[in-house]
């Protein structure tokens, strides 16, 4: 979730049965407290304790996935059926690669049937069936590079990007809005008719702006809050389906 892109995941398996909550064999017992914080800041101490007590983190490790974020996409896809064999999928903010991994498995780009293109400011380990470029999505050259890599219109654009924050609420809000809007505008440029767009936004103003933008170009626009999102997190996902097609400007 880096400033120009970022995320995590992998295909955790919709049919994980009793272990779907992260509890069960191999899961760390909840309620772990670190005995010492020597050498750590208070914020890093809290983050580490949260990681140790997160059932989705335990499940990701147990199932060999790259991060807990995969379970957000799995839950959303189980409800919306976004991913299908043979699709072209664009993953904005791919690190550490979980959403791309899931897309590659379901689209079957691993076997050359579909195509998955991913971008992030941070590097990711190579993934079968995924064409990755390490680049800031907000770079002026990024859109054309992604179009070339796609080789045609996309069926689905995913964005789990999160802007780098500076701790100033108004400034951070503007950065978040700019990043999500850039992803939405690019999705409109590269999607094929009937395509879909899924993006992370944050409650508190950003999501309203994006809804207005997307309702113009998509048949159905709604919010989704996956169970795998951390408790107390303000993140929420906007899902736009039924892309109406790009509207060419009318001549004067």
From TrEMBL:
It comes from Labrys miyagiensis. One of its GO terms (molecular function) is methyltransferase activity. The active site is at residue 200. This is Ribosomal RNA large subunit methyltransferase E. Belongs to the class I-like SAM-binding methyltransferase superfamily. RNA methyltransferase RlmE family. It comes from the Bacteria. Pfam families: FtsJ. Keywords: Cytoplasm, Methyltransferase, rRNA processing, S-adenosyl-L-methionine, Transferase.
């Amino acid at each position: 979730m880096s400033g120009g892109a970022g995320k995590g995941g992998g295909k955790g398996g919709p049919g994980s049965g009793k272990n779907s909550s992260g509890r069960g064999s191999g899961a760390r017992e909840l309620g772990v407290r670190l005995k010492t914080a020597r050498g750590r800041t208070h914020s890093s101490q809290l983050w580490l304790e949260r990681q140790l007590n997160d059932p989705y983190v335990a499940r990701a490790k147990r199932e060999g996935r790259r991060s807990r974020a995969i379970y957000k996409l799995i839950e959303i896809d189980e409800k919306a059926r976004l991913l299908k064999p043979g699709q072209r999928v664009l993953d904005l903010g791919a690190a550490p690669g979980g959403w791309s991994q899931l897309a590659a498995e379901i689209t079957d780009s691993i076997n050359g049937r579909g195509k998955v293109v991913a971008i992030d400011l941070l590097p990711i380990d190579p993934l079968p069936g995924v064409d990755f470029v390490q680049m800031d999505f907000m770079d002026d050259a990024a859109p054309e590079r992604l179009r070339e890599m796609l080789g045609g219109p996309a069926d689905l654009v995913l964005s789990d990007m999160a802007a780098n924050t500076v701790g100033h609420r108004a400034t951070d809000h503007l950065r978040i809005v700019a990043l999500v809007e850039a992803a939405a505008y690019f999705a409109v440029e590269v999607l094929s008719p009937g395509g879909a767009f899924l993006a992370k936004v944050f409650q508190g103003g950003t999501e309203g702006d994006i809804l207005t933008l997307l309702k113009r170009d998509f048949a159905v626009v709604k919010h989704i809050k996956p169970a795998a999102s951390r408790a107390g997190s303000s993140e929420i996902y906007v899902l736009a389906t039924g892309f109406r097609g790009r509207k060419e400007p009318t001549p004067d």
